[in-house]
Design a protein that fits this description.
Layout: E1 8-13, H1 19-28, E2 32-37, H2 42-48, E3 52-55, H3 72-75, E4 81-84, H4 86-94, E5 98-114, E6 130-143, E7 149-153, E8 161-164, E9 169-172, H5 184-195, H6 204-219, E10 223-227, H7 232-245, E11 249-255, H8 263-270, E12 284-289, H9 291-298, H10 304-324, E13 329-333, H11 338-343, H12 364-368, E14 371-373, H13 381-390, H14 395-398, H15 418-437, E15 446-460, E16 463-476, E17 484-485, H16 490-503, E18 507-512
Parallel strand pairs: 1-2, 1-3, 3-4, 4-9, 10-11, 10-13, 11-12, 13-14, 16-18
Antiparallel strand pairs: 5-6, 5-7, 7-8, 8-9, 15-16, 16-17
Helix pairs in contact: 1-5, 6-7, 6-13, 7-13, 9-10, 15-16
Length: 525
């Protein structure tokens, strides 16, 4: 098998909010790439030996002296370079061109027109010589560096694209990585495949084959334990390891009493012998009924952070207890994915600011003295889903909405009680069932119900009902950093409300949350 990492691109991050989108588009073109900060040392660049380099956008301005610059060694590599937005401005500045602040910031949709033949832009199908793109810049290139030609222009940016074919440097002022740029994926694919000469080896089948080989080499004949949560990442890890090492894997699934309706059964069925996930040997799942332990520990506690700590600490205790009862376990498998690695600044030479310290199991590896197996460490969430389907996991599991680690514990506002959890479970199930029936489940990014610690008067039949309130939350988002409430049909919301109130005696009122993020968060706690 060809090494799927041999041909790879380096995405240099200047702090753009779109940097991860660049990498995802390159991988969608079948080419492996990695994101690293702009201040990587020369030794890393030499070791990485990229087939091409992409310079991201960024929030800074090259018109000031102390802002990020392109490492000189990158400009001297001799491989194709693509500068995007700030990347283009940095290229222009460092190679003798000129960049100035624009009188009018160009943000949003714009139209560019071809100004000269272009190896980069030739992949685009232009309508009347122009194409719609997405701009987001305050500065613009006003003077070309020596050897460069202007290949496209817009109303606000006369030099909207430029290239030096001899030096293999190509630059665009717009953002081809965002979906708002028409044919942006084609442009990036043209750069990765044709200009950089990379083959499309980054496919689900090849990723799975490579991961299986790596796991077998790492683990050998040892036994591995995995905390199976029912979420996408841990489920795909289970399916992948099932194919790689079969009976050497034991999954521990902790039922903490705060799961969604039918979740235990769904997960057990997905990995049953009959399901044949991953064409693997029988997968061992140990389901632990810890409902009483969790709910008794949470009794009387209403502070959300305290609830999170209680649930997290108890999960570690239960998992550790069950894992220690197994024999021969030397490895702990985790569903770490690539955004976790990026956000933790966990690259070999990375000097980026740490956004968050990533941990999947809250300190468990140190306590148990186990080695880590992280087969999804290089993958984005959409790639994880793709290989999950390739491995035979049901679509309903692979494309299920995100679910918080503490489960319903942070969707029950205030004290967590067994009867509250059961009420919320039923309401949430009705909500999701109706979304699926209406064909809208996959159209929203996340949807769930919230149990509010307030009571409201209602009338059911001729009787007065004084019970709690359920809030419905559905959002649309691309990256979960920002989100807006989903514009669900009023008729559907009304139907869901009627079902919840009529079918659940402990609910008297249903409301719909229309808050956006920011200022609100997606979850209520």
């Amino acid at each position: 098998m060809q090494n799927i990492h041999d041909q790879r691109l380096l995405v240099v991050d200047f702090g753009s909010q779109y940097t991860q989108l660049i990498a995802r588009r390159i991988r969608e073109a079948g080419v492996y790439c990695e994101i690293h900060p702009f201040d990587i040392p020369e030794i890393f660049i030499a070791e990485f030996a990229p087939s091409g380099v992409i310079l991201s956008g960024g929030p800074e301005t090259v018109t000031e002296g102390q802002t990020p610059r392109i490492p000189q060694s990158l400009l001297e590599l001799g491989v194709p370079i693509l500068g995007i937005c700030y990347g283009m401005q940095a290229v222009a500045t460092q190679l003798g061109g000129r960049v100035q602040g624009s009188n009018r910031r160009e943000f949003g949709h714009a139209s560019i027109e071809m100004a000269a033949p272009s190896d980069l832009l030739e992949a685009l199908e232009l309508a009347d010589g122009s194409i719609d793109v997405w701009m987001s810049h305050g500065d613009k290139v006003t003077t070309l560096p020596d050897g460069f030609v202007c290949t496209a222009s817009s109303e606000s940016a006369p030099i909207a694209a430029m290239e030096n074919v001899e030096r293999k440097i190509y630059c665009v002022q717009f953002h081809p990585e965002v979906t708002h740029t028409t044919q942006g994926a084609a442009l990036l694919g043209n750069f990765a495949r044709k200009i950089c000469g990379c083959n499309a080896t980054w496919t689900a089948a090849n990723i799975v084959e490579d991961a299986i080989s790596q796991v077998r080499q790492q683990v050998g004949d040892d036994h591995v334990v995995l905390g199976l949560s029912g979420g996408v990442d841990s489920s795909v890890v289970a399916a992948l390891l099932a194919r790689a090492i079969g009976s050497q894997l034991t999954c521990i699934f902790v039922d903490n009493g705060l799961l969604r309706k039918g979740e235990v059964h769904e997960v057990e069925q997905a990995f049953s012998n009959e399901a044949g996930v991953g064409n693997a040997l029988p997968l061992t799942i140990k389901t632990v009924d810890a409902r009483d332990e969790f709910l008794s520990k949470l009794e009387g506690e209403s502070d959300p952070e305290a609830k999170r700590k209680i649930i997290g600490a108890l999960f570690i205790d239960v998992f550790e207890r069950e894992a220690k009862a197994l024999t021969g376990v030397r490895w702990l498998a985790q569903g770490t994915i690539y955004p976790d690695v990026i956000e933790s600044a966990a690259s070999k030479y990375g000097k980026a600011h740490v956004i968050k310290s990533h941990h999947n199991v809250g300190g468990l590896p140190e306590r148990m003295e186990l080695g880590l197996v992280e087969p999804l460490r290089e993958l984005f969430k959409d790639e994880v889903r793709e290989i999950g389907l390739h491995l035979g996991l049901p679509r309903s599991l692979v494309f299920r909405h995100p679910f918080p680690g503490p489960g319903l514990g942070v969707r029950i506002l205030g004290e967590v009680r067994r009867d509250y959890a059961e009420t919320l479970r039923q309401a949430d199930d009705i909500f999701l069932e109706e979304l699926r029936a209406a064909g809208l489940y996959d159209q929203v990014s996340q949807a769930f119900a919230v149990y509010l610690p307030v009571k409201s008067v209602g009338v059911v039949g001729d009787a007065r009902r004084y019970e709690h309130v359920i809030a419905l939350r559905a959002v649309e988002t691309i990256d979960f950093m920002t989100a807006r409430s989903a514009r669900l049909p009023y008729e559907l919301i009304e139907k869901i409300s009627n079902r919840i109130i009529n079918e659940i005696e402990t609910v008297s009122r249903v409301v719909y949350d229309i808050s956006s993020k920011p200022p609100a968060t997606i979850e209520w706690e």
